[in-house]
Protein: DUF1304 domain-containing protein
Amino acid sequence: MIIAGLVLAALATLLHVYIFVLEVFLWTAPQGRKTFGTTEEEAVVTKSLAFNQGFYNLFLAIVAAIGVIVSFASDNTAVGYALVFAGVGSMLGAALVLFLSAPDKRPASIKQGVFPLLSVIVLGIGVAIA
Structure:
């Protein structure tokens, strides 16, 4: 169970790195505008906000990734698990905020939150029964 939870955390990490790339490097490009449903004008006006948000997503991914690495590569699994829970828990919280605050963005919030949610559940069960 623990390995499955860590793999799910790694998948959440990869997704958030992808979101970082979209928000920081591709926000005004056709792919970024299509992904986020913005016009060219909206993308230009909100570029600095997206840039900041992209780094927020990257930092969450870094915390979760370090947690996964520490969990696998050291004897200090408690620290690794804590970092994973902090990273994916924050990702899940952000997805929940998006889900509740923007009904038109609910499909995106579900995509953003499914790996973190599953990671929290599966890793939590794995740690509890270990």
